[in-house]
Input
Amino acid sequence: MEAVAEGLWGLADHHEKEGEIAKSIKCLEAICQSHDSFLPIIEVKTRLRLATLLLKHTHNANHAKSHLERSQLLLKSIPSCFDLKCRTFSLLSQCYHLVGAIHRQKQILHKALDLTASANSDVSANLWACNFNSQLANALIIEGDCSSALSVLESGYASATQLYYPQLQMFFATSILHVHLMQWPDDNLVQSALHRCDEIWGSLSPDKTEQCLGLFFYNELLHIFYLLRVCNYKSATQHVDKLDAAMKADLQKMREIQRLSNELNAISQSLSRSDLPNRERLLLSTKQAHLQDQITSLSAFSSFLEQPLEPAYFGNASRAWQDKLFLAPPPVDGEWLPKSAVYSLVDLMVVVFGRPRGLFKECAKRIQSGIQTIQGELAKLGINEGVREVDVQHSSIWMAGVYLILLMQLLENNVALELTRSEFVAAQQTLLRMKDLFVRFPTILQGCESVIELLRGQYAHYVGCYSGAAFHFIEAAKMTESKSVQAMCHIYAAISHFCSGDAESLAQALDLIGPVYRMKDSYVGVREEANVHFVYGLLLVRQNDYEEARTKLAKGLQIAHTSTGNLQLISQYLTILGHLALSLHDTIQAREILRSALTLAKKLYDVPTQIWVLSVLKDLYQGLGEVGNQMENDEYQKKKSDELQRKIADAQSSIHHLELIEQSRFKVIDMKRGVAASQSMSANLDIPESVGLWTTQPGSSSSRLLDVDSRRRPKRR
Output
């Protein structure tokens, strides 16, 4: 019977190589369903192979789970077979993960760890211990038990240390850093985790780091998330540039491999001709060997592929190696996200850092590139227009959630970009697209609800609906547990009340900004402080306390300039300081400051701020009697004001305008979607948001834009 099994295994392998997965599965099922008895070890190997095929090529995780549970029972009667037992535990854990049975997953992983602990501390046992600790940490994070996850990851790090395997140590070190960034228990703990990653990565030789492309991207992105959290945007930009260069180099290499592969296929077809002359056959064979060597050289990206162990298939990810960014060697196979998701995330980071600097053309290009990539990946998961949350295969929920959240992040930044350029209709359309996604996937995207409400407030403020804007900002604050985001929402709401101008609204603005101002030193980083100084300064100007306002605004400008690099916020600081200088009769300084503010506003295509600067310049020119400058200034101001009013009118004429500014939340179906999605997707990748606000100049009806980047959100490994 062994010979029969060997034959069916070989036939199954042949069908799989030909892409005939159904036939391959039937060959293997013939062994399991045979009336003749096979040895238990043969049945176990067959069921393992079946489960692997089902996980790799189908959504049938439950069928795979049944095969693995049967294998586990059979293995209990076999005293040896350590490797087979570990493979069974690993794949069964993944099945429980895919079907959302997290409690069962933890149970099976604890049994697996007991098995590795009872075995000799050899290389295989330690590698499998790393595998099980990694999966157990992931399950604990899904349940929100970060402290236990950290303990498990430290155990994995200890196993990797015993193996003297720095790449594997780096895998666990970055995973530990990721959990610390999610939890942020203490600044010192986070910095210690960061420094450990730097030390291990620095100890790797250049040839090793070149092979660890996945670890490079993971480590660099975690550094960016940390630097965003502490508002060190200038240092973060350097990491973004490194990532972007590495991504472009890898994409170029993949294109070259594809070109060589196409050429190799053409040669192989020519060599298959029976009437090919010997001389020509010899030349083509030589060229074929040369092309194969070139492809092999370019494809030698990771020593992780040298061990032929079965990989993990989280999210039902049946992808070629070119589409993966491995973090660790088999059997850990710690792929964080698919390469397409990581590269979309890099595009997003380029946008996040490019938009405040006015690099709108490049940002728009990256947003569209990221959206197209994500839409292609969602289509592979069966998610097209009209598909709703309940229609998604359970095994695809987690991966779909990753892509949907990235899509929402890109759309969110697109809204911010269009609002900055006063393209209100385009912003309106993108915001409606975000609403459609949220309504269709309310549980997976429930963590994005506050962002949508925040952007509704943005939109309402831009078109002059200040009371509606304040409502949406307050609602957005209620939808998040982040103290930082709540503070930014209250700052936005204070600006909206400030723009209303009446005494009651000003009192409400002060009530909102006072608590944030008193707590400004308690936030991580300086983002809240930079913005609260601005709003507090506006209120002091309104109260005619010019000297105190000047002090607060000068301090805020220094923070914005040295830490945030946000040109829009800087231009607005300069505008109000120019207004103050003029009020204090320092016309020379006022002229210089206002010219700088106008230059920045023009660079950003920021029409509201341009109008605000021009209104202050008008007062300056009138006071100095510069009639020519005043006439030129008035003409340009009228041109910009007419342009702005026309764009607002276009937005208000849309049938969706009232829907967006209505003072009520969007209605969605009851969010009772199951299992892991509701827990894992509400806490997603730590990717910054970008939003902006209008306000009015103190004592004037001119409009301007206050741009504040809320760059923080919880995340999941």
